[in-house]
Amino acid sequence: MNTLTIIAVASGGAIGATLRLLLNGLINRHFIHPLPLGTLGVNLLGSLIIGILFAYFHLNTSLSPHLKTFMVTGILGALTTYSTFAIESFFLLEAGHYTHAFINMALNVFGTIFMAGIGYLLVLQLAK
């Protein structure tokens, strides 16, 4: 691993973490609900964006690997919040909110896969 890769991940991570803080707060402030919608929102958005980026990378093979690392590992790695999703789901289960916990888990797991696929297929379709 070289210095440029480390700089790409670190700088992208700073951007992604800041975006996560802002988006999570914005969503939770405007959508009060027992489900952690801020976490769900950033996970869905991040999954959509990674689908879009990977389709773009597929169509543009000459892009710099450092740019790809900056965007995916850096920005999206810090933006999405799988560890937060995991602990929030655990706390819902621990509190006996089984229905909310399972809805939260299903929406995060299946929703993020769906959004990644939508992003990927959308870009490929638009590129035709």
UniProtKB/TrEMBL annotation:
Q: Does the keyword Cell inner membrane apply?
A: yes
According to the record, the segments passing through the membrane are: 6-23, 35-57, 69-93, 105-127
Q: Give the UniProt keywords, A-Z.
A: Cell inner membrane, Cell membrane, Ion channel, Ion transport, Membrane, Metal-binding, Sodium, Transmembrane, Transmembrane helix, Transport
Subcellular localization(s) per the UniProt record: Cell membrane
Q: Can you cite an annotated GO cellular component?
A: plasma membrane
Per the record, the similarity remark reads: Belongs to the fluoride channel Fluc/FEX (TC 1.A.43) family.
* Name of this protein: Fluoride-specific ion channel FluC
Q: Which organism is it from?
A: Sulfurovum riftiae
Lineage at the top is: Bacteria, Pseudomonadati, Campylobacterota, Epsilonproteobacteria, Campylobacterales
